Structure formats: C-alpha cells, structure tokens
C-alpha cells in the first residue's frame, strides 16, 4: 500500500475510532505526513454531525436533535477528545488543591473536575448544535468547527515538547506543518461559513492557547490528553462563537 494512503489511514485512526490503521502497516512517519490532513478529517466528522443534526431536526425538537447529533460525533471519535478534556480537568483540579496534575491525569477514575467539565462541555455543545440546526437548517458551522479544532494538536506539537508516552510522530511536526494545516482549515471554514469563520478561528486559537499554556507550566509539555482537551475545547468554543453571530 502506498505511503500516501497510509498517511490518510493514520490521520483517520488518530482522530477517530474508525480502525483503518489495523488494515495496513501504519508507522509514526505516516502520521507525521498525515497531520496535514487533520482539518479534513475534522471536517468529515463535522459533516456527519451536521447531517445528523439536520435530519434529526426534521423529526424531533431541536434539543433532541442536538443530543442525537453530538452522540453521533462521540461515536465516530470514540470519545477520544472528551476523555482528554476530563483528564486535563482533573489535572487542573489536582493542581488547584496542591497535588500533582500528571498523577491525577493518569488516574482512570473520573474526578469531580473532570465530570463537571464533561457535563458543561456537552450541555453547551448540544445547546449550540440544536440552535444552529433549528428550523431544519443544515448547520455548516459544525463542519467549520470540526476543521479548525483539529489544528490544535498540530499547533501544540509544534510549540511544546511532548512529555507523554508514545506519539513519536510529534518530533517531526513543526510550524511548517502547522501553517499547512491551518491553511487547509481556513479553506474549509471559508467555504462552509464565509466571514463568520474569523471569530471561530480566534476563539478556537484562544482555547488552544489556554490549554497549551497550562500544560507548559504544569506538565512541562504536551500529552495525548492535552491534545484531546484542546480539540474538544476549541471545537465547542468555535461553535459558541458561530451561534453568537448567527
């Protein structure tokens, strides 16, 4: 199988629960080149969520349609980003109480901070998706948010050292890769929502910067959980920004 196809498989496997990588020999170098495709994978996931919201809104009230759509996204991604958000939130809680955040993040049990973060994130995302899809409207903002949010792990990998286990692909990810992925996300976002994509980018970047700053200070670098938290937070914030302008 060609290296380009393996790179696609690597990107899809890294960001979703679709097990394409099990059907081919996918090495870290394939994920290095596949990082450029992260925004495209995010846009595909966003399209699935948006289509689900649109179809569900034709038969159910907005909030139920929002729940079904967000559940679809969780199923496709295997809740990878939500898991990262919960772990990082538990790390924040541990740091606030004087504990070591890394130890709290490795604990498989869900803490109060992690549970609260999950509830608030899901409530906000479901409400926003429901509002955007109200009246049988196809929420293209979900597609744009999915694309821009997947730039977050690339930006963090370029800016910070990786201190977690595995993910050796981050060693070759630099600002050139980040710039290429950002351009791809901008192209997708402009086509999807036009000028409204600008504030979505701003708040998504702010969310990523906040997560990255905390990780740099408290962990000394980034981890897989930090990647997931940055994706989830930036995606939800971008959707909220889109709704504020709608």
Could you characterize what this model shows?
It is built from twelve helices and no strands. The chain has one domain (35-245). The chain has helices at 3-15, 28-34, 38-57, 62-77, 80-96, 101-106, 112-132, 140-149, 152-159, 175-193, 197-218, 224-245.
The profile of the biggest β sheet is: none
Portion of residues in helices?
A: over 70%
Please tally the helical runs, counting DSSP H or I stretches of 4 or more residues.
Answer: 12
Low-confidence stretches: none
**Radius of gyration over all CA atoms, rounded:** 17 Å
Residue share in β-strands: under 5%
Please, what is the average pLDDT? 92
Overall body shape: globular
User: How far is the N terminus from the C terminus?
Assistant: 45 Å
How many beta strands in the DSSP annotation? 0
The secondary structure category is: mainly alpha
* Tally of distinct domains: 1
Order of H and E elements: HHHHHHHHHHHH
Key terms:
mainly alpha
């Amino acid at each position: 199988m060609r290296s380009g196809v393996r790179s696609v498989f690597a990107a899809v496997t890294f960001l979703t629960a679709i097990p394409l990588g099990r059907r081919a020999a996918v090495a870290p170098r394939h994920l290095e080149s596949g990082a450029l495709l992260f925004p495209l994978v995010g846009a595909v996931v966003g399209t699935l969520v948006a289509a689900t919201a649109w179809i569900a809104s034709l038969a159910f009230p907005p909030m139920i349609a929002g729940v079904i759509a967000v559940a679809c996204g969780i199923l496709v991604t295997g809740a990878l980003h939500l898991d990262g958000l919960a772990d990082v939130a538990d790390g924040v809680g541990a740091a606030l109480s004087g504990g070591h955040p890394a130890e709290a993040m490795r604990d498989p049990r869900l803490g109060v901070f992690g549970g609260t973060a999950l509830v608030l994130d899901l409530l906000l995302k479901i409400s926003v998706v429901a509002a955007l899809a109200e009246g049988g409207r196809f929420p293209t903002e979900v597609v744009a948010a999915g694309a821009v949010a997947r730039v977050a792990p690339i930006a963090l990998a370029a800016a910070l050292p990786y201190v977690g286990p595995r993910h050796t692909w981050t060693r070759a990810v630099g600002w050139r890769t980040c710039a290429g992925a950002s351009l791809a996300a901008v192209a997708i976002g402009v086509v999807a929502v036009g000028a409204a994509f600008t504030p979505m980018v701003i708040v998504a970047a702010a969310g990523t910067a906040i997560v990255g700053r905390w990780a740099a200070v408290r962990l000394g670098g980034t981890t897989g959980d930090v990647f997931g938290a940055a994706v989830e937070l930036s995606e939800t914030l971008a959707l909220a920004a889109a709704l504020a302008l709608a």
